[in-house]
């Protein structure tokens, strides 16, 4: 079987391509640069040149594949409206390529903004509906496509998909700590994040492709709740920096963009996912990854 992966050279996408190749799949990956194409070819994957702004290329790549994993996102924090518009158009193109085939498509989403005051469950529907909503309402758009003979699955990722080489949120926190000379947490540090190791997330994606029924939501969550103060403390210890409280009013200045997320509780349960797919995370915890030095290397934050 050939699986088409968008975001195939990104953090989660790279691990997913590796997982699929190890499991005997053929993989074609979307590449917008020569460097990305070379990285895919070096792994033994095929290359589809293009990006999320080329719906015709996405539709044809989906049509030629036996399944799709959509992980790419522009993440342009200065143009949220444009991100949402592009995401919706990309998912619509992928679904058009799969319509009537019964083939699977896995579409990425996060836990933020789905419910407040408790951990998000797989049974909780996303409130993002329509073109102007978060990610262009792509989760609901994909799940509704199950009525069009597409086996569509939404995978919701913990805010920290961690591991050595992660250039996401925890990397941004360590960059802020270096820049400020202190590792900070916001207010009392009682906000909490879920977390999952990147290899466990990649394995879940493969299992969802293979086994999840259409219309299913699955959660890439290994640890349901890690306090943000604990994260800051471990970052400080790893970098040899003091740990300080940062007032919420100063979070944007201190942390940059990630400050908006670091002050939020973003947690989810994966109990239903584990029961459905037999998925059991085996990777290290987030705090163990920080302790082991996974975030001591300086990486880009964009």
UniProtKB/TrEMBL annotation:
Protein name: NAD-dependent epimerase/dehydratase family protein
Species assigned in the record: Flexivirga caeni
Single GO MF descriptor: aldehyde dehydrogenase (NAD+) activity
SUPFAM superfamilies, per database record: NAD(P)-binding Rossmann-fold domains
GO cellular component, as recorded: cytoplasm
Positions of the NAD-dependent epimerase/dehydratase domain: 3-80
Entries under Pfam families matching the protein: Epimerase
InterPro entries: Epimerase_deHydtase, NAD(P)-bd_dom_sf, NAD(P)-dependent_oxidoreduct
Gene3D superfamilies: NAD(P)-binding Rossmann-like Domain (3.40.50.720)
